[in-house]
Amino acid sequence: MSDIDYRSEEFITQFTQICEKAGEAILEVYHQKGDLDIQNKEDNSPLTEADMRSNAILSEALQLAFPEIPIISEELELASFDERKHWPKYWLIDPLDGTKEFIHGSGEFTVNVALIENHEPVFGVVSAPYLNSTYVGIEGKGAFKIENGKREEIHVRSVQKQIAEFGEVDVVASKRHGNDKVTVFLQKVEQQLAKANTKNIGSSLKICLLAEGKADFYPRLAPTCEWDIAAAHAVLMAAGGEIYHPQGERFTYNSKEEILNGYFFAVADKTYDWQNIFVMHEE
Description:
The protein has helices at residues 9-30, 49-65, 81-84, 99-104, 159-166, 179-192, 205-211, 226-239, 275-278, and strands spanning 39-40, 46-47, 71-73, 89-97, 110-117, 120-128, 133-138, 142-147, 150-154, 168-173, 195-200, 217-220, 224-225, 242-244, 260-261, 264-267. The protein is of the alpha+beta class. The protein folds into 2 domains: 9-154, 2-Layer Sandwich (Fructose-1,6-Bisphosphatase, Chain A, domain 1), CATH 3.30.540; 159-282, D-Maltodextrin-Binding Protein, domain 2. Helix 1 runs antiparallel to helix 2 (49-65) and helix 7 (205-211) runs parallel beside helix 8 (226-239).
């Protein structure tokens, strides 16, 4: 399997353009007049024409440019674990993350593409077409955000400095999943850490806000799949943050039969000792 120079500017430019093209296809459907054609998949999650258009653009472009590298996509049949557990690298994509936000017209939906090597996200692009923003994370090179054509480096912030200056932490949470559990959990967090200023936002944008220093903590106490978070995880890692299991282990990919995630905690400042915070969700 050939090597990819994912740190090269040529690759980064090519790849962000592919993701932005997929985003343009999504917006074409988003701005159409009339009712959306919405189907339900086997897990009862919604599927739209925008999901399929984006998936076709991404999968075809990746297969053409990198034919030796397999693809896992939310909208493609998943290979068996017996097959994929031997993959040293693969693409992990969610053609339209936040389909419910897309349907409800919030604009908080993204195109997520990650390159996974040895169970780690080493390159990721999160494109938010409605917001005209794209986040990119590259292992060993850093993270940046492209907004309205302007590129700016991004990095996480210190949670201790945030508490010292403002007496609170900024927490991001899902708009539509697991909010009751998160509310109870954050009440405990406020007793031990600081006041929790919570913002509900859709899709992988939550993790990207951590990466760009606009939030500190994202507790996810509801199911997700690996393709939902991999690209944003790459951005967060490149910006200095991390995602952990509740027991404190770092989050990795393609290490089990199912692709469904358990609970996790995404943190901006990984130098802070979060373990006592994590365990409170079980108390």
